[in-house]
Amino acid sequence: MRKQIAAANWKMNLTYAQGEQLVNDLLSQSSVPESNREVVLGVPFPYLSMVAQKIKGHHGYSVAAQNCSQHKAGAYTGETSAEMLTSIGVQYVILGHSERREYFSESNQLLADKLNIALSYGLTPIFCCGEPLSIREAETQNSFVETQLRESLFHLSAEELQKLVIAYEPIWAIGTGKTATADQAQDMHAHLRSVLAAQYGAEVANRISILYGGSVKGSNAAEIFSKPDVDGGLVGGASLKADEFIQVINGLK
Fold first, then answer.
1. What parts of the chain have a pLDDT lower than 70?
2. What does pTM read for this prediction?
3. Domain ranges of the chain
4. Helix or strand (DSSP H, E) at 5
5. pLDDT reported for residue 176
6. Is 151 one of the annotated active-site residues of the chain?
7. Which one from 38, 97, 99, 131 is the annotated catalytic residue?
8. What is the pLDDT of residue 99?
9. Which of 106, 131, 169, 189 is catalytic?
10. Cα–Cα distances in angstroms (integers) from residue 249 to residues 112, 195, 219, in the given order
């Protein structure tokens, strides 16, 4: 079975003390994830070292940055490099989140560059893709998301591709309270896997975890995650409360 992942994305939320308490609560209240499950905590840059230290020795827990620079190093004030992240024990990095695409104009080509440098430093990218409401209403979401994959991922070798996690996030369902139905999520995840299979072969495509992101919460996680091509979730608001996120973790296959 592919790795089943509950990935938290705290975004720009919580003070240091609040974040520390949340991690303490998660580690004390949740059970050790089964061998095929992983909990990834995507936290703001100032909290990465703290979280990395707290989860050390806790099986099944990893820490993720929410972004990284496409540059190796240099005069890029305010940026954080992939090398910096690995030097403090970060294992994952979220790339291409819809908010980065929308608010910071991140293009598919820029994300290809970020993927390259993240992989070169041993980070596991969680690559986000997904369509806005206008594309969904026009029923062109399949081709829209396929273009995101082609322009950002298809320069990678099969070996490199298998080091990625993909997160599908219908932008119209992020923070809106709207959620794609479990069947809608499955349909898109199956399409994404078919796009990967057409380029790299079914064996490679079937090894890649594809997460759903879009108003996942404790009450709907198990139903969404039960679908055959849904391998967990990238979770925003529900990851800011320990009891809610634990329900999400428990909903993994």
1. 175, 177, 179
2. 0.96
3. 4-250
4. strand 4-9
5. 72
6. no
7. 97
8. 95
9. 169
10. 30, 28, 12
